[in-house]
Design goal:
about 150 residues; mainly alpha; Arc Repressor Mutant, subunit A; 3-stranded antiparallel sheet; 6 helices
Length: about 150
C-alpha cells in the first residue's frame, strides 16, 4: 500500500475509533447523570453555573451548545425543580441571568464530586502519560479541524 493510501486508511480508521470511543464514554457519562434525576443538558447548565456563577441565559445556550429556544425550556425545567432562578441583570434590565439556588448549590456540591469520580474511573486503564498525551492529541485534532 502506498504511503498516501495507508494514511487515508488510517485516517478513516481513526475517525471510526474516535467516534466509537466518544459514544461509549458519553453513554457512561449520561448513565451516571441520570442517577441524579437529570438529563445531560440540565447537568451541563447546572455544572456551568456551579463553576462559573450566574450567567446571562443567552450565553448559557452558547456555552453548552444549545439553541436559544431549547435553553429557555431547560432553564424553565430547572427553575421548576428549584435548582436555579432567574434574576435581572443590575446593569442591563434587558438581560436575564440564571443562578443556582441554595437547593441547586447543595445538589451540585453533592453530585459533582461523585460524577467526577465516575468519569475518572472511565479512564483508570490509562497511565498519567497516556491521559496527558490523549488530551494533547485530541485538542490538536479539534483545533486543526476548527481552522478549516
Amino acid at each position: 500500500m502506498e504511503s498516501n493510501e495507508k494514511r487515508q486508511a488510517d485516517a478513516l480508521k481513526l475517525f471510526v475509533v474516535l467516534n466509537r470511543a466518544q459514544e461509549s464514554v458519553s453513554k457512561q457519562a449520561i448513565k451516571d447523570i441520570k442517577k441524579y434525576g437529570l438529563n445531560l443538558t440540565e447537568f451541563a447548565v447546572l455544572e456551568l453555573l456551579y463553576h462559573k456563577g450566574p450567567q446571562p441565559i443567552q450565553m448559557i445556550g452558547k456555552k453548552v451548545l444549545l439553541a436559544s429556544s431549547s435553553i429557555t425550556y431547560v432553564v424553565d425545567k430547572l427553575e421548576e425543580k428549584a435548582y436555579i432562578e432567574r434574576a435581572a441583570c443590575p446593569n442591563d434590565r434587558r438581560v436575564t441571568h440564571a443562578r443556582l439556588t441554595e437547593k441547586g448549590e447543595a445538589l451540585m456540591g453533592e453530585i459533582f464530586p461523585q460524577h467526577t469520580e465516575a468519569l475518572t474511573k472511565l479512564f483508570d486503564h490509562l497511565s498519567e502519560e497516556e491521559l496527558t498525551n490523549t488530551i494533547s492529541i485530541l485538542r490538536k485534532i479539534g483545533l486543526s479541524v476548527e481552522k478549516e
